């Protein structure tokens, strides 16, 4: 279960009885978290979230799946990372904010080749990779390292693995990932329903079949890109441009290129030093 954690203390005993593992969405320290996660009336939710998180990371640690943090480059990256570490999460997932070519990422104007998201993540990567002991797993970094070393990805945010997820809405509609809603209204709809259609029918839809084709479904610019096998063109929703749909590089392309290149350089240096016995 993924939750904002505000009501966790009331539900932890029940979730424990049911064996439900829990991920909590939190964006850093109080200041970072309160930028986007306030109560409807404007009050801070941070205290309530951290009360639940402390319980989860101590008495109910066996249920703790990890933390999910939406990146806001206005928040200092190491402050965010260290605020998350205080809960000793087994894993942290950093998410790029939803954006596409008609709605560019916050903090970067259209046409700019600045890489504020890579710069932000690289500060955390260097802190994480350089720690004397691994403090947590950071999914985006481990996925990129795994891909650089020849593996396949298990995340739709990166790599060329086929999409393997459909969403069952509460009315029984079968939809694609709901993050596609950030592209345009109705983007995830398939027209299928659990009462009428076997789940496998989703695989026959052009929009889902296109996401099983790996490299051959990428935009020309991505196919020519030296890091395309690792990047995979970025998250599908981030490729959307009105007029050409999803056949584009990710709007985060410059950030992904820089982040992947940096991790590749660090990994190469580190593995070479180990091989030479100088690490
Ligand atoms: S870095 Fe940019 S061009 Fe290269 S594969 Fe990723 S999105 Fe495509």
Protein architecture, described:
The protein is of the alpha/beta class and 279 residues long. It has a domain at 1-95. It is built from 10 helices and 8 strands. The chain has helices at 8-18, 30-36, 46-57, 77-85, 116-129, 139-148, 206-209, 220-223, 228-231, 253-275, and strands spanning 2-3, 22-25, 64-70, 91-95, 137-138, 167-168, 173-175, 189-193. Strands 1-2-3-4-5 form a 5-stranded parallel sheet. A 3-stranded antiparallel sheet has the order 6-7-8, with no helix packed on it. Strand 3 (64-70), helix 4 (77-85) and strand 4 form a beta-alpha-beta unit. Helix 5 runs parallel beside helix 10 and helix 6 (139-148) packs across helix 10. It is globular and about 50 Å long. Residues 221-222, 225, 227-228, 231, 233-234, 249-250, 253, 256-257 line the site of iron/sulfur cluster.
Which secondary structure elements does this structure contain, and how are they paired or packed?
Elements: E1 2-3, H1 8-18, E2 22-25, H2 30-36, H3 46-57, E3 64-70, H4 77-85, E4 91-95, H5 116-129, E5 137-138, H6 139-148, E6 167-168, E7 173-175, E8 189-193, H7 206-209, H8 220-223, H9 228-231, H10 253-275
Parallel strand pairs: 1-2, 2-3, 3-4, 4-5
Antiparallel strand pairs: 6-7, 7-8
This protein binds iron/sulfur cluster.
């Amino acid at each position: 279960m993924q939750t904002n954690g505000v009501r966790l203390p009331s539900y932890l005993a029940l979730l424990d009885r049911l064996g439900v593992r829990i991920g909590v969405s939190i964006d850093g320290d109080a200041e970072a978290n309160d930028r986007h996660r306030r109560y409807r009336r404007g009050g801070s939710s941070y205290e309530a979230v951290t009360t639940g998180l402390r319980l989860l990371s101590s008495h109910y640690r066996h249920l703790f799946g990890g933390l999910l943090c939406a990146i806001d480059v206005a928040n200092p990256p190491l402050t965010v990372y260290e605020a998350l570490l205080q809960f000793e999460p087994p894993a942290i997932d950093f998410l790029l904010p939803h954006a596409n070519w008609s709605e560019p990422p916050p903090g970067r104007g259209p046409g700019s080749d600045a890489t504020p998201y890579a710069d932000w993540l690289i500060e955390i990567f260097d802190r994480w990779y350089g720690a004397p002991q691994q403090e947590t797993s950071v999914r985006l970094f481990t996925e990129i390292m795994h891909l650089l070393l020849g593996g396949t990805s298990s995340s739709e945010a990166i790599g060329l693995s086929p999409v393997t997820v459909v969403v069952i809405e509460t009315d029984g509609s079968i939809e694609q990932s709901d993050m596609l809603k950030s592209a345009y209204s109705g983007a995830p709809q398939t027209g299928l329903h659990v009462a009428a259609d076997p789940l496998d029918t989703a695989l026959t839809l052009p929009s889902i079949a296109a996401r099983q084709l790996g490299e051959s479904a990428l935009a020309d610019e991505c196919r020519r890109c030296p890091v395309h096998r690792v990047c995979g063109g970025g998250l599908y929703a981030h490729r959307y441009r009105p007029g050409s749909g999803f056949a584009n590089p990710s709007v985060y392309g410059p950030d992904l290129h820089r982040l992947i290149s940096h991790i590749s350089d660090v990994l190469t240096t580190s593995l070479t030093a180990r091989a030479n016995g100088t690490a």
